[in-house]
Amino acid sequence: MRLWKLSLAATLVACGPAMAAGDAQKGADVFHDHCDFCHSFRLEDGNGTGPNLSGLAGRKAGTFADFEYSAAMKNSGIVWNAQTLTQFIQAPDTVVPGTKMVGFRRVDAEDIDDLIAYLMAAGSPEAAPTGNLAPPAGATPAPQSPGPPTP
Ligand code: HEC
Fold first, then answer.
1. Residue 145 pLDDT > 70, yes or no?
2. Which residue of 41, 86, 90, 109 lies most exposed, with the fewest beta carbons within 10 A?
3. Confidence of residue 148 (pLDDT cuts 50, 70, 90)
4. Is the torsion defined by CA of 50, 35, 100, 97 positive or negative?
5. How many whole angstroms from 69 Cα to the centroid of ligand 1?
């Protein structure tokens, strides 16, 4: 009985964060499908149709060098984090009325968390300026649920 309780607790602890957070590896595919013909996280790629996203996490909106942002973006006062990115991706013209980011394919609701996990990882200070995910592609991913299987 005691053992059973212990393992249940371990299972709950193991599953909790894994279920809440998105999967950055899956998010990389979403980014490839919806975003990367206008944006790159690699500093050496510079700006495209959209601004370079290197170091995005914690960056003030409209501040990447040498990109001609809309006045709306420059004056938005937004700082990019998981919450502001979620809102912007779902409704760019509502969050930043007058934004130049138009004509991109909307991301399905069920893919948003994965995309945001990728944006925050690839845009983190540790990943800048390359935008590489840690661990690098090809590394063995950490097991999703180290706890005992749920009944
Ligand atoms: C058709 C080209 C295009 C596509 C596709 C596109 N964007 Fe953009 N994006 C832009 C442009 C242009 C801007 C600058 C907007 C402005 O100045 O108002 C921008 C701005 C941004 C910004 C603000 C950056 C900053 O420096 O403040 C973020 C974040 C962003 N895009 C994320 C995304 C994500 C995530 C996707 C995929 C879901 C995406 N974009 C798809 C063109 C695009």
1. no
2. 109
3. low
4. negative
5. 10
Q: Which residues line ligand 1 (CB under 6 A)?
A: 34-35, 37-39, 49-51, 56, 61-62, 64, 69-70, 72-73, 80, 85, 89, 99-101, 103-104, 107, 119
Domains annotated for the chain, with CATH where assigned, are 22-122 (1.10.760.10)
Q: What is the DSSP string of the chain?
A: -HHHHHHHHHHHHHHHHHHHS--HHHHHHHHHHHTTTT--S-GGG---SS---TT-TTPBTT-STT----HHHHTS--B-SHHHHHHHHH-HHHHSTT-S--S-PPPPHHHHHHHHHHHHHHTSTTTTTTT--SSPTTSPPPPS--SPPP-
pLDDT digits (tens, 9 = 90+) for 59-88: 999 999 999 999 999 999 999 999 999 999
Q: State the distance between the two ends of the chain, measured CA to CA, in whole angstroms.
A: 15
